[in-house]
Amino acid sequence: MATWTEENKNQYEQVYQDGLKDSIYNKSMSYEEWIKFNNYGQPLVVNGEWEEVPQKPMVKGVYKGYTVKKGDILITNGTSSSGLLGHAAIANGNEYILDIPGKGETTKQWTTAKWMKEYDGKGWVKVYHLKNSSVANDAANWADKNYFSTKGTSKQNIFPK
User: Which CA distances in Å does 102 have to 38, 76, 80, 108, 153?
Assistant: First the structure.
């Protein structure tokens, strides 16, 4: 891994330095520890509770042949900031993604098509589906009511940074 780490330092070094500057993590964390912690910029390997959605064109609520479902987690390496590689969001409805686009911004509810247009093509996008739909719905409802709308509606009344 030492060779890979050195060969790919140009791609990730600035993100690491930004995290140090913004005090996102302890200054004693070396670049080698940080890149390992960030899974070397690669997608996660899932366990038995989750399944990675196979990738297959984008239409309303559908990503590469898979219909996004409430509670799905979307992860991309298409963006990085403040020492963190990648970005994650949750489907808070069957056609909507709850997202915090970046540092200092507030939450947004985007259509699946808009979210994918923003992140797909900048890197990889993985969709992870929780096999237990009850837990997936509970997670999506919790995220929605704590980070977008206390009433669980499409009208935003919470604006966290």
Answer: 18, 13, 9, 11, 23
